[in-house]
Design goal:
2 domains; 420 residues; 18% strand
C-alpha cells in the first residue's frame, strides 16, 4: 500500500514537471491585464528634433493598428494599448529622469525610444538596474551590443553605426572603385563608430582613408570643407546627424565642394533630404535603412511591402514615411509580438520568448534576432543616389532612387568580437 502511494506521488510530480515545461511562460497567475501601457520617448526637441517626431509617428501608427484589430492577444483576450509620450530633449540626464518618471509614476510595461545613440546607451544602463522590455529604434553605439553591456531585456532594432560605415566603405571600394577617400565625422559616438566600420572595410581592401573630425556643436563647416577640397579626394564620406546633417549637406553645395569631388552621405533620411535644396542632394550617394518608394527594386515583395506601408502612413500623416518612422513602427510591432509570445508583460519573459522565436517579417524583408539582440535583415541597408529637381515627380519627397542594397551578415559586427 505504501509503495502504491509513493508510486502515485511520484507520477503526480512528473506530471507537474511536464506541465510546467509545456505551459507557456506567463500563462500562470492573474488574468490578462486591462491594458498595456507603453512609453514612447524620443528627442522631440534639441539636436535630435528633425528625427524624433517622425519616430513618434511610426510608433503611434503601430499602436493604432494593433488597437484597431482589438488589441494585444493575452490569455485568450485582446487587451488595448495605451501610450505615454516623453521628450528626452536630446540630453542623457533628462532622458534618465524621464525614464524614471515612466517607470515610477506612469508605470509603463514597455519602452520604445530613442533618437541619439548616447541616450540609448544611458537608458540601457538604467534598464540593467530596473528591467523593462526596452526597444531602442535608433542606430546605437557598437559598444552597446557587447555581451557584458547589452541588457537582457533590451532589443535594438536599428543596429549599430559601425555597420553604416562598414557597408558604405565597402560600396565605395567595391562598386565605385574609389581609393582616395576622406572620411568627415562629428566628434561623438555616432560618427566615430561609422569611422570604425569604414576603416575596417577599407583596411580589409588595402585602402587607407584620411579622417577629419568636427567638434560637437559645429554649425559652420566651411573651414573643414575647404580643407577637404584642398586634399583633392575621389570621394568624401560624411557621417553627420540631426541638424548637423542638414547643415553639412547645404554647405557642401554652397562651398562648391560638390563640384570638385563625389559626395557620400553615410545615412540619409527623408528629413535630411527634404531639408536641403534639390541641387544640394543631386548626385549624392547615400545609404538608407529603408525608403518609402522602392519602385524598380529587384525584389517584388519588398516593393509591395513599401507601397503598403507608405499608403497607410500617408493616410494617417499626409507625408511619406521617413526611414526612422518605419524602424519605429517595426520596433513597436516587435515589442507587441514579444508580449503575445510571452503571454506576459514581464520583461524577462518577453526577452526569453523573442529569443526563442527570433524570426519576424518587415518592410526590409525577413529579420532574425541575433544573440546580441540586434536583428539581421534580408536587406541591411539600401544604396541610393539623390535626385535633382528635374528628375523629381514630387519636389519635396521624391528625393532619391534605389541603386542597390547591402545584404549578408558582414553588414553586422561579428558576434565573437562582441564577446559571444
Amino acid at each position: 500500500m505504501v509503495r502504491s502511494i509513493r508510486s502515485l506521488f511520484g507520477f503526480m510530480v512528473v506530471c507537474l514537471i511536464v506541465a510546467s515545461l509545456i505551459i507557456p511562460f506567463g500563462a500562470y497567475g492573474a488574468e490578462a491585464p486591462k491594458k498595456i501601457k507603453m512609453g514612447l520617448m524620443f528627442g522631440l526637441t534639441g539636436a535630435a528634433s528633425p528625427i524624433g517626431p517622425v519616430q513618434l509617428e511610426g510608433a503611434k501608427l503601430a499602436i493604432k493598428e494593433v488597437n484597431a484589430a482589438g488589441g494585444v492577444k493575452i490569455g485568450g483576450k485582446k487587451v488595448p494599448v495605451e501610450f505615454v509620450v516623453k521628450d528626452d530633449e536630446t540630453k542623457p540626464d533628462i532622458a534618465i529622469r524621464r525614464f524614471r518618471e515612466l517607470m515610477n509614476e506612469d508605470k509603463v510595461d514597455i519602452l520604445i525610444g530613442q533618437t541619439f545613440a548616447p541616450i540609448s546607451a544611458a537608458i540601457n544602463k538604467e534598464v540593467k538596474k530596473t528591467p523593462i522590455a526596452y526597444f531602442p529604434v535608433n542606430v546605437v553605439a557598437i559598444t552597446m551590443f557587447e555581451k557584458n553591456e547589452m541588457a537582457e531585456t533590451t532589443f535594438a532594432i536599428h543596429g549599430a553605426a559601425y555597420s553604416i560605415g562598414y557597408a558604405g566603405a565597402s560600396y565605395v571600394a567595391d562598386k565605385l572603385k574609389l581609393k582616395h577617400v576622406v572620411f568627415f565625422a562629428p566628434a561623438y559616438a555616432f560618427g566615430r563608430d561609422q569611422w570604425a566600420g569604414a576603416k575596417a572595410a577599407f583596411e580589409k581592401r588595402g585602402i587607407k582613408a584620411e579622417y577629419i573630425e568636427s567638434p560637437v556643436g559645429t554649425s559652420d563647416y566651411t573651414s573643414y570643407l575647404l580643407k577637404i577640397a584642398e586634399m583633392k579626394p575621389d570621394i568624401v564620406m560624411m557621417a553627420h546627424w540631426g541638424v548637423d546633417a542638414i547643415n553639412v549637406l547645404k554647405q557642401t553645395y554652397e562651398t562648391g565642394l560638390k563640384k570638385k569631388t563625389k559626395i557620400w552621405f553615410d545615412w540619409m533620411t527623408n528629413v535630411f533630404g527634404s531639408g536641403v535644396p534639390p541641387e544640394a542632394l543631386e548626385g549624392v550617394y547615400s545609404l538608407m535603412s529603408w525608403y518609402w518608394d522602392m519602385k524598380g527594386f529587384e525584389d517584388a515583395a519588398i516593393v509591395k511591402a513599401a507601397e503598403s506601408f507608405a499608403k497607410k502612413y500617408m493616410a494617417e500623416y499626409k507625408n511619406p514615411p521617413d526611414p526612422y518612422a518605419a524602424m519605429a513602427y517595426i520596433g513597436t510591432k516587435e515589442a507587441i509580438r514579444g508580449i503575445e509570445l510571452a503571454q506576459s508583460t514581464n520583461p524577462h519573459a518577453i526577452a526569453k520568448a523573442i529569443m526563442g522565436s527570433p524570426k519576424f517579417d518587415s518592410m526590409k524583408g525577413p529579420g532574425t534576432w541575433r544573440a546580441d539582440h540586434e536583428p539581421l535583415f534580408k536587406y541591411g541597408a539600401f544604396v541610393v543616389i539623390g535626385k535633382g529637381e528635374k528628375e523629381r515627380k514630387d519636389k519635396k519627397w521624391d528625393l532619391v532612387k534605389i541603386i542597390g542594397a547591402y545584404t549578408g551578415e558582414d553588414y553586422l559586427p561579428a558576434l565573437k568580437d562582441l564577446g559571444y
